[in-house]
């Protein structure tokens, strides 16, 4: 990010269920980082995978963000309305020899150990019953995380020709997120640590397109009592619909941020304003606190 380029952050949930405490950590962290920089905070609904979507979830997510005082700038961007942009990106990669059609099955790749071996790269397959893979010309073996420092990933993952358009006709997450973050001028991406591995693929795509790469901050994940990620797949309870302030306090404690003792005397707006004023990303822990709180009561 250059001095002339204003800060732009974003929160980009998929409508596969309502927001839970883990989602709130990502939303609040990205919101506070953007507001502390006096920047723009955008919301994008990543609705490009209809089989995984829950009817009404997108509207619920937006209501939850508003209920918790996390008001975004501008209009919400919907990935379902961005197909032309993704097709244009795919066409550009194809015309520059940076992608190819692949007919390999998932079972074949599993037999290889889980990572694709480039089998179809020179076979000249057509689009029928085929996925599109990126020719991995610029593998990214590590990247600098603003919270965690240098992060190195599995070399096989970094060197893989990964899918950018699925066999079923859906656009792959890595392609869509890069195209949209570039389109929206996102300068820093603050999100959960479960997305560390895809980061190297996304950086590789930025480099293939010749686009500037945003900075990255990966926040600790909220965990269940048995140590699993709190997620929609694990049936995490949705955010409470009552007073949002105690949950915001829990989230601030989780992120190891300063919390005023008199928070109960503050409105939600004032509580968030103080959180912005006292925001210290350098104090965020790399890993989740031992006993993260998911209840309605503050720690």
Task: Write a short abstract of this structure.
The protein is an alpha/beta fold and 299 residues long. It has 2 domains: 8-81 and 184-283, 3-Layer(aba) Sandwich (Rossmann fold); 83-175, Rossmann fold, CATH 3.40.50. It is built from 9 helices and 10 strands.
Outline the low-pLDDT stretches. 291-299
As a percent range, the share of strand residues is 5-15%
CATH architecture of the largest domain: 3-Layer(aba) Sandwich
Integer average pLDDT: 91
* Top-tier CATH class of the largest domain: Alpha Beta
For the record, give the distance between the C-alpha atoms at the N and C termini, rounded to a whole number: 36 Å
Structural class: alpha/beta
The major sheet is characterized as: 3 strands, parallel
**How would you describe the oligomerization state of the chains in this entry?**
single chain
| Overall geometric form | elongated
Strand order of the largest sheet: 1-2-3
Number of self-contained structural domains:
2
| Radius of gyration from the alpha-carbon trace, in angstroms | 20 Å
How are the SSEs ordered, and which strands pair?
Layout: E1 8-11, H1 21-36, E2 40-45, H2 57-67, E3 77-78, H3 83-95, E4 99-102, H4 106-111, E5 131-134, E6 142-145, E7 149-152, H5 155-159, E8 163-165, H6 173-183, E9 188-192, H7 196-209, E10 215-219, H8 245-254, H9 268-277
Parallel strand pairs: 1-2, 2-3, 9-10
Antiparallel strand pairs: 4-5, 5-8, 6-7
Helix pairs in contact: 1-8, 1-9, 6-7
Binding site for Zn(2+): 102, 104, 116, 120
EC number: 6.1.1.-
Binding site for ATP: 232
């Amino acid at each position: 990010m250059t001095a002339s380029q204003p800060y732009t952050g974003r929160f980009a949930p998929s409508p596969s269920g309502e927001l839970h405490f883990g989602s709130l950590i990502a939303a609040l962290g990205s919101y506070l980082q953007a507001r502390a920089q006096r920047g723009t905070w955008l919301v994008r609904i990543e609705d490009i995978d209809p089989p995984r979507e829950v009817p009404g979830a997108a509207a619920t997510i937006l209501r939850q963000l508003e209920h918790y005082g996390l008001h975004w700038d501008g209009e919400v961007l919907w990935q379902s309305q961005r197909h032309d942009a993704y097709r244009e990106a795919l066409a550009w990669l194809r015309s520059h020899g940076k992608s190819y059609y692949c007919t390999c099955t998932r079972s074949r790749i599993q037999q290889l150990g889980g990572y694709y071996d480039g089998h179809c790269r020179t076979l000249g397959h057509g689009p029928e019953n085929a996925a599109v893979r990126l020719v991995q010309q610029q593998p990214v073996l590590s990247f600098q995380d603003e919270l965690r420092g240098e992060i190195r990933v599995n070399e096989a993952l970094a060197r893989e020709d990964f899918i950018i358009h699925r066999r079923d006709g859906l656009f792959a997450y890595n392609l869509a997120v890069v195209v949209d973050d570039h389109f929206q001028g996102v300068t820093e991406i603050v999100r959960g640590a479960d997305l560390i591995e895809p980061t190297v693929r996304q950086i590789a795509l930025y480099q293939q397109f010749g686009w500037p790469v945003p900075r990255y901050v990966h926040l600790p994940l909220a965990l269940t009592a048995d140590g699993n990620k709190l997620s929609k797949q694990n049936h995490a309870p949705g955010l409470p619909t009552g007073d949002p302030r105690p949950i915001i306090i829990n989230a601030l404690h989780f992120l190891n941020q300063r919390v005023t003792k008199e928070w109960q005397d503050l409105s939600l707006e004032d509580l968030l304003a103080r959180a912005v004023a006292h925001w210290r990303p350098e104090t965020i822990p790399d890993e989740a606190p031992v006993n993260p709180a998911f209840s309605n009561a503050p720690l």
